[in-house]
Design brief:
about 300 residues, seven-stranded mixed beta sheet, five-stranded antiparallel beta sheet, binds adenosine-5'-diphosphate, binds magnesium ion
């Protein structure tokens, strides 16, 4: 196969934790050709999508894990699959990337489906399953948010709709003299909606990341926050621990999987705290290296094998 990864520059890649890198390494080791390009390397000639790509060679080298060869222009209809793996933000460039990738519909497999990427906001997607989420309010209105905090027992979490990696996640406590200031900062003085959620004290025991491929779980990981931090994200200093799926996780998967499939969200990461679905990561879900290490299993191979099976 020939696979193209549309992603961030290789300089941003950590060889021992990055999921895109693990997928690229696995694809190359299986003998597939792997190319890399940035979103800005995509170009349409009339209706035909091309990219200026560079062949990538991977190694577990801390300095230079992805070596890129000389670039060439290719018609993406001649590529077997495109993996869109750029990190958020979901900005206008990201939107245009998904719209340009529409030209491949029916011709080249795109993971995830560009329509699904456009439709699914990582925070708001969970609102399709209100019964699986903790009580949640999405609002820009200060008094409404303050009332919600009171309603859910005086403690909540507020997070930016376009946040990732734990950025901007803050605890709200009724009576805290900073309550108003935090709400105003998150909503930019009432100009932007934010997500406010009942505080789940279970977050201390960990935020479970469940990687889902074509509606099926392929591995899970528990991220335990530092004792003095609200965010469990590995990027914020959370630590990775092995995790099994329990009854709550299976119930969540059962309800979410059909919708994911319908939306072409082939490879996603669900975040589950205390048995509640808090987030559905679709843009560049991560955790595959940690899960592979903890479970002594090559989870990346399952993704590459799935692509191969899908194409044949
Ligand atoms: N309702 C909640 N109760 C307690 N902690 C939460 C809650 N929602 C999020 N968190 C904490 O914030 C972290 C990041 O939240 P999440 O919604 O997954 O956004 P992102 O990972 O995109 O920043 C979680 O890993 C968890 O530690
Ligand atoms: Mg998360």
């Amino acid at each position: 196969m020939r696979l193209l990864f549309v992603m961030d520059p290789p300089a941003a890649i950590k060889f021992d934790s990055d999921t895109s890198f693990a997928l690229m390494l696995e694809a190359e080791s299986q003998g597939h050709r792997v190319d890399h390009c940035l979103p800005s390397d995509l170009f349409l000639v009339g209706g035909v999508l091309h990219a200026h790509v560079r062949r990538a060679h991977m190694s577990r080298d801390p300095i230079d894990p992805i070596a890129l060869a000389q670039g060439e222009d290719v018609n993406l209809e001649s590529i077997d699959a495109v993996l869109v793996r750029t990190d958020p933000p979901f900005d206008s460039s990201y939107l245009w990337t998904t719209l340009m990738l529409e030209r491949l519909r029916g011709k080249t497999l795109v993971v995830n489906d560009p329509r699904g990427l456009r439709e699914a906001n990582e925070k708001l997607y969970a609102c399709h399953f209100p019964e699986l989420m903790p009580e949640t309010l999405v609002s820009a209105h200060r008094e409404r948010i303050k009332n919600f905090v009171k309603q859910v027992g005086g403690r909540a979490v507020i997070k930016p709709i376009d946040g990732a990696g734990g950025e901007g996640v803050m605890a709200l406590t009724q009576g805290d003299p900073n309550l108003r200031a935090i709400i105003d900062a998150e909503t930019r003085n009432g100009q932007r909606v934010a997500m406010v959620q009942r505080f789940l004290p279970e977050y201390e025991r960990g935020d479970k990341r469940i990687l889902v491929l074509d509606g099926e779980p392929i591995g899970a990981l528990l991220r335990v926050p530092k004792s003095d931090d609200i965010a469990s994200n590995l990027r914020m200093g959370g630590t990775a621990h092995p995790a099994e799926l329990d009854g709550d996780d299976r119930r969540i998967l059962e309800q979410v999987a059909p919708r994911l499939k319908q939306d072409g969200l082939h490879f996603v990461g669900l975040d589950v705290i205390g048995g509640f679905l808090t987030e559905v990561n679709v843009t560049s879900p991560t955790g595959i290296q940690q899960i592979s290490r903890l479970n002594r299993e090559n989870v990346s191979a399952r993704v590459i094998d799935w692509i191969k099976a899908k194409l044949s």
